């Protein structure tokens, strides 16, 4: 253990020094120009003590000093897994659905707002999972289709008075068409070249939304978008139907939940279909798949279009919920966030992506009380998670190595 610690102490000390250099500008420099060190040293001391304890546990584990504890925990985990497998999957799915439906009854407005965001990003993450997780294509401009769906509903509702429910399939269809238009000239590329081109097309869409003043109102965005509405019976003066706008947050949560369930079911059916198997063959080795008779270009284009379709659905709901849309909501950082959800949760894994979306949306809210350095804590948690779970929180059962990765 002492020899192992001697190998690790130098990079560990350098890391702590780097952390001090990062923390002091955040905590020691005040808006009035004064400097202080006490708060920086306090926070740094807590982090150093916690990381040192984790380092000791890691070294003890590597030296087999705590092997009995690890074996006991492993046995306990295996027993819990066997017990969970005895329960039918339908029971867990039903229990999760019941809890999701009862969630607004036991939570406040803030918790419902966060849960609605999680459901939107689940739709986005599962849509991107088709492109990245199943077909093995790195897409850095995915958020553009989210914007196409949002602006489709905004323009149809403001200028033509089309309701949310009628605009929803139109937004999905236009996002799907946009995916085909963008994907057709780009999907013959592979690897890093594909990522750069998709990033460029995503920025092109954002710049068009930001500069087409006559259609999108440019950076000012579009105001006056109506929320989803339904007709309810009215018995005040005989029998008639009254238009009721769904503005309450818990009602919007249920709409987002319905969209998320539709997305989960659709992606799962695609995953276990012949098309899903073909996508996976392209992901594992595109050259071998093409030699076996798989139309790789057509199926890659289909994956791009299907991913864009679910992004369009999420975008239309996002616009209806906010009742306002602007280009600032569709920047590259949003594409990076959705991609992080897919990688963190586990590429190709539907439960993993759901968990990754919940983690990336909920954790910043949990750390909100840390004020300035909450994103630092969040980033550290992400780094630690990817070091210990590089395949994701819940890795996919059918996942190999892409041919592009092996060539690199």
Secondary structure topology:
Elements: H1 2-27, H2 38-62, H3 67-86, H4 89-102, H5 109-134, H6 143-160, H7 164-183, H8 191-211, H9 213-216, E1 222-223, E2 229-234, E3 240-245, H10 249-271, H11 274-284, H12 286-291, H13 296-322, E4 324-325, H14 332-345, H15 350-366, H16 374-388, H17 403-407
Antiparallel strand pairs: 1-4, 2-3
Task: Explain what you see.
A hairpin with a 5-residue loop joins strand 2 and strand 3 (240-245). The radius of gyration is 24 Å and the shape is globular. It has helices at residues 2-27, 38-62, 67-86, 89-102, 109-134, 143-160, 164-183, 191-211, 213-216, 249-271, 274-284, 286-291, 296-322, 332-345, 350-366, 374-388, 403-407; strands at residues 222-223, 229-234, 240-245, 324-325. The chain is mainly α. The longest helix is centred in the C-terminal third of the chain and has 27 residues, at 296-322. The protein has two domains: 2-84, no CATH class; 108-407, Orthogonal Bundle (ABC transporter involved in vitamin B12 uptake, BtuC). A two-stranded antiparallel sheet has the order 1-4. A two-stranded antiparallel ribbon has the order 2-3.
């Amino acid at each position: 253990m002492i020899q192992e610690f001697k190998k690790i102490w130098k990079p560990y000390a350098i890391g702590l020094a780097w952390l001090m250099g990062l923390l002091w500008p955040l905590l020691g420099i005040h808006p009035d120009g004064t400097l202080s060190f006490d708060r920086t040293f306090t926070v740094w001391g807590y982090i150093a003590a916690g990381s040192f304890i984790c380092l000791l546990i890691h070294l003890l584990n590597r030296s087999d000093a705590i092997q009995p504890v690890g074996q006991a925990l492993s046995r306990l985990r295996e027993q819990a897994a066997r017990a969970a497998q005895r329960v039918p999957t339908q029971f867990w799915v039903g229990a999760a659905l019941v809890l999701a439906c009862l969630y607004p009854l036991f939570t406040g407005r803030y918790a419902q707002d966060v849960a609605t965001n999680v459901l939107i990003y689940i739709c986005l993450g599962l849509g991107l999972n088709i492109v990245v997780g199943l077909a093995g294509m790195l897409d850095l401009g995915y958020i553009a289709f989210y914007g196409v769906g949002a602006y489709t509903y905004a323009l149809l509702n403001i200028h033509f008075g089309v309701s949310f429910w009628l605009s929803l399939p139109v937004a999905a269809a236009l996002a799907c068409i946009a995916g085909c238009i963008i994907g057709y000239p780009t999907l013959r590329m592979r690897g890093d070249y594909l990522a750069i081109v998709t990033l460029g097309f995503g920025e092109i869409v954002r710049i068009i939304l930001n500069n087409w003043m006559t259609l999108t109102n440019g950076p000012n965005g579009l105001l006056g978008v109506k929320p989803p509405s339904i007709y309810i019976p009215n018995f005040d003066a005989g029998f008639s139907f009254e238009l009721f706008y769904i503005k309450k947050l818990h009602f919007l949560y249920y709409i987002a939940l319905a969209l998320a369930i539709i997305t989960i079911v659709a992606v799962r059916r695609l995953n276990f279909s012949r098309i899903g198997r073909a996508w996976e063959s392209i992901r594992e080795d595109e050259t071998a798949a093409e030699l076996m008779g798989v139309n790789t270009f057509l199926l890659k284009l289909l994956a791009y279009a299907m991913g864009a379709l679910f992004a369009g659905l999420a975008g239309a709901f996002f616009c209806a919920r906010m009742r306002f849309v602007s280009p600032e909501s569709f920047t590259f950082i949003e594409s990076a966030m959705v991609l992080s959800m897919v990688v963190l949760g586990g590429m190709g894994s539907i439960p993993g992506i759901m968990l990754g979306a919940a983690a990336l949306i909920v954790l910043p809210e949990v750390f909100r009380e840390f004020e300035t350095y909450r994103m630092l804590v969040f980033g550290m948690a992400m780094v630690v998670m990817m070091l210990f779970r590089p395949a994701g929180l819940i890795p996919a059962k059918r996942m190999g190595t892409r041919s592009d990765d092996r060539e690199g």
